[in-house]
Amino acid sequence: MKSLKPFSFVHVADLHLGYSQYGLEVRREDFDGAFKELVDKTIELKPDFMIIAGDLFHQARPSNITLENSIKDFNRLREAGISVLTVDGSHDSAPNSITGTIMNPLDSAGLIYHLPRHEGACWRKADCCYVYGVPNYRNRHRTEELLPTFMEQNRPNPDTSVFNIFVFHMALDLPNVKPPYIEAEATPELIPEGFDYYAAGHVHKPYMEKFKTGLLVYSGCTETTDYVEAKIKKGFYCVRVNEKGGATPEFTEFESSREFVILEQDFTGLAPSRITEQSIQAVKAADKEGAVIIPVLKGILPAGAARTEVDVARIRAAAEKALLVHPVVLLRESEVSEELVRSIFESEVKDLKTKAFEYFLQIFSERHSKEEAEKISHIAVSLIEPLTKKQEEKVKQAIEELLQ
Questions:
Q1: Are 243 and 351 contained in the same domain?
Q2: How many domains does the chain have?
Q3: Hey, which of 31, 106, 142, 343 has its CA 20 to 30 A from 256?
């Protein structure tokens, strides 16, 4: 049984500093603001150290203003005596072997301790803990190829007399961990045994479960990087470890996160003009000061209607108080039944015009009277032969008839 000096640490990941979401400078400021709040709350909690499990920055080469702001906040942590231990993530990992990761100069400046850069990829606190961290390799193939080599060159060496922490930025191939939109970069077998706490990043939803010899924890993200994350609580874990090595992670939720309002609606069967009007009314009803409103337009359009007929510009302009209205158009254009399409292409040539007429009639009946639909369908069928034979005059004649 372990007997160690009690301590605490903050575990955070996926801050994505510098992300000007939707091209808005104010959204970049929101991400900076989340980091400032993290630092404020961390200083209040007075942990022994902080772990950032990857994606501190949204880009491998953040802007000067992003760097300047982050340096100011890292200085505040340094002045408070709180060490910051990092690994790189899929966004801020080294773009190539020559330039290296942006974490290296921050490490050289003494603002962070970038674990993969140091001998043994580890950090120790006497009578307390051993922390080991690995780089991010961006995808599964590279991870399976390069991670074992890295750990062979920098062997993880957990100490049974202290609390052991493994830090990484990867989605593990576990049923309850991997979101559908994220590729699992590593199998559980690639992660070594012998650790008490596995501090993970990359999955943007807070998550915790028993894993191997310890506890697997994803801290989630600190701001909304995609509208599907809108309802996920944003924050970090403060983990308190007792003298017996028992860990108690407590989640601290941020108070300053930008509000996202998601308006998801199925518009199946409605014409684009009605979809536009209903979406405008929904945006006006949901209008809130400073919010990001995301109308998610779903459903199947009537035959012959196109997504481009939805007036997205009018929907965007419908709010007066919101920071932004950003429609997400997931509408599907209608498809004629597979049976009818198959019958057209499997029919004899002599039946082609009959089948084609049925096909066109089904499409045009959705938007025109029976008489008009039949007229347009006849003209459409009459165009088949002259089009295939490049008889331009007959094509022009049929089009002129349609316009009369």
A1: no
A2: 3
A3: 106
What average pLDDT does the chain have? 89
- Residues 369 and 293 placed together within one structural domain of the fold: no
Q: Are the beta carbons of 103 and 70 closer than 8 angstroms? A: no
Cβ-contact 322, 291 below 8 angstroms: yes
**Rounded Cα–Cα distance for residues 384 and 399 (Å):** 12
Q: What does the angle CA 54 – CA 55 – CA 57 come to, to the nearest 5 degrees?
A: 135
Q: Is the pLDDT of residue 349 over 50?
A: no
Query: What pTM does this model have?
Result: 0.82
| Same domain (yes/no): 172, 239 | yes
Q: In this model, does residue 34 exceed pLDDT 70? A: yes
For residues 30 and 286, what is the distance between their CA atoms, to the nearest angstrom?
21
Alpha helices (H) in 80-118, listed in sequence order: 103-108
By CB neighbour count within 10 A (0-12 exposed, 13-18 middle, 19+ buried), where does 99 fall? exposed
Same domain flag for 195 and 90: yes
Amino acid at residue number 67: L
- Of the residues 309, 329, 349, the one at which a domain ends: 329
Least Cα distance to 50 among 245, 257, 239, 255 occurs for 239
Q: Are residues 173 and 82 in the same domain?
A: yes
* 346 token code pair: 């499997």
Does 151 map to a domain? yes
With a cut of 80, say whether residue 170 has pLDDT above it.
yes
Final residue in a domain of this structure, among 203, 227, 253:
253
CB 234 within 8 A of CB 253: yes
Residue 48 shares a structural domain with residue 159: yes
Domain hosting residue 56, numbered range:
7-253
